[in-house]
Amino acid sequence: MTIFLGGIRGSPAIFLTFNGCLSLNIICIGLNLSVLVACWYWKNKHIIGTRTKVRDDTIACAEHKGDPSVIDRYFTRWYKTDLKGKPCEDHCILQHSNRICVITLAESHPILQEDKKIQRISYQISAGCSRLQNKVSGKSKRGGQFLTELAPLCRITSTDGEEYTIFSCIRGRLLEVNEDILTRPNLLLEKPSTEGYIAVILPKFEESKSITEGLLTRAEYEEVVLKRVGSNLQPI
């Protein structure tokens, strides 16, 4: 049985999990930087620059699996690649054992790969739909907007005029969006897996095991990235 205790802006969300004995799992998806810095160090620095660096960092990640970060200790990484047929527009889904899923940019997304400068981030999906208007209440988190796998979460515009849509990737209720990236967009570039997250989604209980169907494991994702590297290498 899991009880949600936190989630207020400025502090981490806290979940108590009862499984024979009491254990405390602290999930730092709040916006308190001091807590996040302490809890959310990440082992795999986001990949920018050349395709060769993608390969090197991917291999380095595989070699250091014996020393997991806090994220890797409490979350399972899932990936969705080439969203809507757009090359390299990859998303990462961090799934906790209590069903909570955190949506982030994958390391290989063009925003990170090409070191894009962000001009604007908008959670306004259409004239009548804004993710910022999402409201949940009660222990069951009722009232949150229900999302399908391809429901857009936000749109990110870079200074070179490119626009990228970030999708939910899974079905579930929207618990919160990260309003901090609206005023501090560099969080997306500097800490995409932690303070630069996009949104938090809670899948239905009966779908908590099936939501990962169609997603890639970390190993499968690394294979996709390596194949891209190979296909882009020029013969000497």
From TrEMBL:
Membrane-spanning parts: 22-42
Gene Ontology BP term (one): regulation of actin filament polymerization
InterPro entries the record matches: Abitram, GCV_H/Fam206, Single_hybrid_motif
Principal location: other
GO CC term (a single one): filopodium tip
Family stated for the protein in its record: Belongs to the ABITRAM family.
Name of this chain's protein: Protein Abitram
Molecular function GO labels: actin filament binding; actin monomer binding
